[in-house]
Amino acid sequence: MKYSRALAVGIALLSIAAATPSSLAQNAKPAAPSAVSPETVVVTGQRPTREQREKIVWDFVYAHAKLTPKIDQLARWVKPVCPAVQNLPPGYAAFITDRIKAVAKSAGAPVREPCKTDIEIVFTSDPQAFMNGVAVKEPALLGWHYVHQTEQVATVTKPIQAWYVTDTSNRVESYRDDPYHSAPAGTPGSRISHGQLSVFDTVLIVLDAGKVAGYPVGQIADYLAMLSLSEAEAPDDCRALSSVLDLLSSDCSASDRPQSLTAGDKAYLEGLYAMDPDEIGSLQRSSVANSMLRNSGDR
């Protein structure tokens, strides 16, 4: 059993109610009183120690909190989250975009209407052919990479895969993160902040339509929400504190794959959008972890 199932931050409590169909209930007769007391089943479990809970949360943060290559900070949205879905019927596309915006609003990310698309979600039967086209026509959409790495970076390795373009801002000007240009000047002389922050510019998410077919649209929408709002270091390695990003992981058993955003996912996103955007990356990770632990009653 995972430690996370004993954590307030990592447990989804499922109430299963057994209901008798109304057509049967109308014909049902009250059962005769029984002289035998009903059997009592007691389920017990051991709550992980505080040290174990802290390790579980920190493992989750390190797996999900990827630092940007330019200034080693956590990126998040400062402009409105604005997803668009390609190659799905309008009803399904609207459901996914509405869900992403709802999760963003709940986490504290900016949402506004109308908005300019900055999260492009593409369903395709041939994701590699699509990404080959991106590599040739719009290589900037692949995010940080050297020119000789373009083909490698554009290689599709997952049924759902994301590419992130980030900017570095000093709140006066913002520069696109790439290996060939410097970041805008920050504030020297501080060990906790350089007066710079990493922000998302655009996110491209490509789904292999054949491999995600059969999954409920709600599961896919939650998966896409998590990918849209944060960049994970190791998104699908099935750690102790579960994430909706474990849904397609080959390391997880079917019973360990969440059906929706987990409590850990929600606590992580809330911590990400509540942290100080100017702090150095190590302090930002610590801030997110402490926020998650506070939600579990450990801070």
In short:
The protein is of the alpha/beta class and 299 residues long.
Which features characterize this protein?
299 residues, 5-stranded mixed beta sheet, 32% helix
Give a description of the structure.
The protein is α/β, with parallel strands linked by helices and 299 residues long. It has one domain. It is 32% helix and 12% strand. The longest helix is centred in the N-terminal third of the chain and has 18 residues. The protein is globular.
DSSP strand content: 5-15%
Tell me, rounded to a whole number, the average pLDDT.
85
> What is the CA-based Rg, rounded?
22 Å
Query: H/E order of the elements?
Result: HHEHEHHEEEHHHH
Sheet with most strands: 5 strands, mixed
Tally of individual domains:
1
Q: Span between N and C termini?
A: 24 Å
Oligomerization state: single chain
Which geometry do the CA atoms define?
A: globular
Helix segment count?
9
Uncertain ranges: 1-34
Fraction of residues in helix: 25-40%
Number of strands: 5
Query: Could you say which structural class the secondary elements and strand pairing correspond to?
Result: alpha/beta
Strand order of the largest sheet: 1-2-5-3-4
Write the layout of secondary structure elements.
Layout: H1 22-25, H2 50-64, E1 83-86, H3 90-107, E2 119-124, H4 127-137, H5 150-153, E3 160-169, E4 174-176, E5 197-208, H6 209-212, H7 217-229, H8 263-274, H9 281-295
Parallel strand pairs: 1-2, 2-5
Antiparallel strand pairs: 3-4, 3-5
Helix pairs in contact: 2-9, 3-7, 3-8, 8-9
